[in-house]
Amino acid sequence: SSIDWLAFSRALDxxxxxxxxxxxxxxxxxxxxxxxxxxxxxxxxxxxMIVQPKSEAEVITVVAACVQQNIPLTVRGAGTGNYGxxxxxxxxxxxxxxxxxxxxxxxxxxxxxxxxxxxVDIDRVTRPSGWEIRMAPSTYRTAxxxxxxxxxxxxxxxxxxxxxxxxxxxxxxxxxTMEDQPQVLELRGDExxxxxxxxxxxxxxxxxxxxxxxxxxxxxxxxxxxDFMQAARFGQALxxxxxxxxxxxxxxxxxxxxxFAAFQDVIPSQSHCAFLMVSEESIAPLQELVRxxxxxxxxxxxxxxxxxxxxxYEYTWNHTTLHARAIDPNIxxxxxxxxxxxxxxxxxxxxRHFGDEVMMHLEFMRVGxxxxxxxxxxxxxSTPERLQAIIQYHESQGAIIFNPHTYLLEDGGMKxxxxxxxxxxxxxxxxxxxxxxxxxxxxxxWAEG
Length: 449
Ligand code: FAD
Description:
Elements: H1 5-11, E1 16-18, H2 21-26, H3 36-42, E2 49-52, H4 56-69, E3 73-76, E4 93-96, E5 103-107, E6 110-113, H5 119-126, E7 131-133, H6 145-151, H7 158-161, E8 172-176, E9 184-188, E10 204-214, E11 218-225, H8 228-240, E12 246-252, E13 272-279, H9 283-292, E14 296-301, H10 303-306, H11 318-327, E15 331-333, E16 336-337, H12 345-354, E17 358-359, E18 361-367, E19 370-375, E20 378-380, H13 384-396, E21 400-401, H14 409-412, H15 419-428, H16 440-448
Parallel strand pairs: 2-4, 3-4
Antiparallel strand pairs: 1-2, 5-6, 6-10, 7-10, 8-9, 8-10, 11-13, 11-14, 12-13, 12-18, 15-20, 16-19, 16-21, 17-20, 18-19
The structure holds flavin-adenine dinucleotide (FAD).
């Protein structure tokens, strides 16, 4: 191409950048390899250079230099995404936001943070005053808030607060546009969804205002059951139990617990189990609920004990897949919502229908005000056709699949064009330089003419 990289690096002035091939390669990748489909599509993609701004002013300088030479720009937080969200398909630069990592201020119920701050580091600042972030992915210790908003959906905490996309879970963002003269826009309220979960295709988030939740002392508990459906019904009941304060309600079918090396002495073989985080004061009523469902508590840590050693949340959400793949790399996963399945009939049907081929892993989330089973089932992969058939069967029965085997924004979750995101992109990224190739609506608008 005709890009003058020397002129570009001069335009960066004192802004930090990396050109060493090994580092460039590493910082061009994420956790796309959980998907055998994406492995083939993305393995060889990489940027020319990694640029690491320390301030919004530096971001603006980088953007202006990219626009001048038509250089594609792909934003990166910590690169823990699972769909190649921050992998540059067309080279150019990766804009690594990890040095913009401050909590600027916080007050009861709200914090203003830079995009590159790690989720765990927000809590480190706010927890001593009794506040914490409402929800986090199981990559809580490594992921950034900008990346979570740009490419994540929910996680630990979602059983109480719903998902990121629920109104109120993101208050405001500042965004740098990719125009000849980059602008800084401030979006508030519903407007934030123009850039939230857009894979960095329509603006660089440089500041976020997020809501905070009361921070409880979270105890960790593992409960085992002889029967999977009994474990699942227990999960639903705990999700519905308004008097119990909870942060995590995960249910695993046997043999999933057998992939967790750290818990082999704790969880008897062939049992189904629930991994829970509840507030310490909720332990006594929890014990009664466990008794009602004939479960056995096999592991219990106070919040103080839980702050050391293994953290159970690092076995839940997509960490479950990580641990299973460490033992059997042929395993991949699905992401499913079972809407309106309060009696768990659809969950039970899928559990029995697929048996060991699709191992049930439920995560209870609040959806539209009700505790709802979602799943990140472990799937024994054979062929792309079989994977497709399994997805189609779920959809034909009314389960919603958020396909983790595509890097296209729309195909993963929404299944339809988000017109507001497309219109916003036309305005803020007129040359289509931001994370090119990820937004189907943008790619296809040229085809349609
Ligand atoms: P990155 O992967 O770096 O980026 C994600 C997307 O956001 C990219 O498209 C990027 O371009 C964009 N982006 C990053 N920063 C900005 C910015 N400043 N402005 C605009 N766009 C930006 N996800 C969940 O939602 N829930 C889970 O429970 C969960 N569990 C996981 C478990 C494992 C083991 C792994 C590997 C992944 C998991 N994920 C989960 C996916 C991922 O870890 C999270 O979504 C995480 O929040 C992404 O943060 P990141 O900083 O790594 O973002």
